[in-house]
Amino acid sequence: MYCQDTPEGAIVNVKAVPRSSKAGLDGVLGDAVKVRVRSAPVDGKANKELVEVLADAFSLPKASVAFKSGETSKTKRLLLRGIAAEAVRKVVENLP
Hints:
It is a single chain. By secondary structure, the chain is an alpha+beta fold. It is built from 2 helices and 6 strands. It has one domain (3-93): YggU-like (Conserved Hypothetical Protein Mth637, Chain: A), CATH 3.30.1200.10. The chain has helices at 45-57, 85-93, and strands at residues 3-5, 9-17, 24-29, 32-36, 65-69, 75-81. Strands 1, 2, 3, 4, 5 and 6 form a 6-stranded mixed β-sheet that branches.
């Protein structure tokens, strides 16, 4: 499962796709949410944009999105504070 509840919020497995033509959530890929970002993975720019994309998609402040693991990998685990896994699934499963 790409998302699980914790006392702090939801932990989401993310497959980051840098250097994309558009930024945003792009459905589920295996056991992770595919997230496209325009930035290249240089000097943390892609990670910064990833946080912005997730915060925007789930209507959270950027400070509520934190890395748990994978900051230098394409596969990452992020904590979305203050949101339940069920709410994350509703957003991801209703993508156009």
